[in-house]
Amino acid sequence: MSIFNTFLAKIFPVMGAVNEDDVKVHDVTPFAKEFDLEAMEVIRNAPVWMSRAERLLLYTLIFTLRPSRYLEIGTFQGGSALVVNAALDALNSQTPLICVDPEWNVAPEDWQKIEHRATFIEGYSPAILPKAEEAAGGKFDFVLIDGDHSYEGVLRDARGVLPHLAPNAYLLFHDSFFTNVARGLNQFANENANQLVDFGSLTREVTVEAHEEKGAIQWGGLRLMQRRS
What we know:
The protein is 36% helix and 23% strand. The protein has eight helices and nine strands. The protein has a seven-stranded mixed sheet with strand order 3-2-1-4-5-9-6, with helices on both faces. A two-stranded antiparallel sheet has the order 7-8. Helix 4 runs parallel beside helix 5.
């Protein structure tokens, strides 16, 4: 078997685990080329610790995948929620946006931009997640996890959200290049290989923090996984 055929044999069984028959499509024939570029200014201005590539990817994933229920674990100042909301607004979507965080840090003027669809739930993941699912009216098909960045915290959030995922749901993890997060995600992907497709980190931009004791620390990266149907 050639190297290429070996590669295909490894890839296609994994990819095929997601049922393409369940994918909902949308007819946009009358306006397929329309873009409101002014509405996309939020990608540049949102108060979120994400690089250019991460902001663009988050907006693009929401715009292209059109989730029915969105959850983010770790909201902080609401920057990622602003980006997600802009994509959903561009789609005229009714998708609820559920924000989970231990404390409120969103500026009033930013909350006003998303309050038509957003619900803020104060508390810790995963204990608060049943309340988040209830607020959304069902299980989530897109989740952004940007919470506790310790190895244990990443595993706790990732494992805890699994019961609240719809079939074929997407999990997007921020700071996948940070050492503790990477270790936690590798462990999570390995122990759930039978029910998750791991696409790896989809961005390549990092920010580097100089640390006297630990040396250079890399932050950034968005890693995508999908629950099998």
